[in-house]
Structures are given as structure tokens and as C-alpha cells.
From TrEMBL:
Chief location: membrane
Organism field: Flavobacterium columnare (strain ATCC 49512 / CIP 103533 / TG 44/87)
Keyword Cell membrane among record annotations: yes
A GO molecular-function annotation: fluoride channel activity
Regions that span the bilayer: 29-46, 58-83
Name of protein: Fluoride-specific ion channel FluC
Organism lineage: Bacteria, Pseudomonadati, Bacteroidota, Flavobacteriia, Flavobacteriales
């Protein structure tokens, strides 16, 4: 869930900075990489998936992976869309 929220926030920041004429690259990196990157933890996602696989919950591991990626892309797109429209 945290990764999905982080993807949404990255989408919002990306859309916002695309619309702005005057901004620094450093400011963009600070929010997108620094704040959002620190907020989301891909390592947690990886660890949870490995734990599922080690417990022979292969179907759940693949479903978790697919849904996490799909939701991440969807939330990023939603963030960009909301800022642009």
C-alpha cells in the first residue's frame, strides 16, 4: 500500500513539475527521489515476496507481485492525470 501511495505522489509531483516553467532540477529530484523514494520501500516489497515464495505460497506471491506493479502504474498515472486535468 505504501508503494502505491508513493507512486501516486510521484505522479502528482511529475505532473506538477511538467506544468511549471520555473523550477530547478534539484527541487524536482528532492521531491520525487528524496521524499517519495524515502517514503516507499521496494525492499519491503521484495522481502514480502521472497517470504511468500519460501512458504510455498507461489500463487499468492505472483498475485501480490502483479497487483503491486499494476496498482503502482495505475496510481502513478492517476497522479499525473489529476495534475494535468
Amino acid at each position: 500500500m505504501v508503494n502505491s501511495i508513493g507512486c501516486f505522489l510521484i505522479g502528482l509531483f511529475f505532473g506538477y513539475f511538467e506544468k511549471q516553467i520555473y523550477h530547478t532540477t534539484e527541487l524536482r529530484f528532492f521531491f520525487m527521489t528524496g521524499i517519495c523514494g524515502g517514503f516507499t520501500t521496494f525492499s519491503t516489497f521484495s522481502n514480502e515476496t521472497i517470504q511468500l515464495l519460501q512458504n510455498n505460497q507461489i500463487g499468492i506471491a505472483f498475485l501480490y507481485t502483479f497487483l503491486s506493479i499494476a496498482l503502482g502504474f495505475g496510481m502513478t498515472y492517476l497522479g499525473i492525470y489529476l495534475v494535468k486535468n
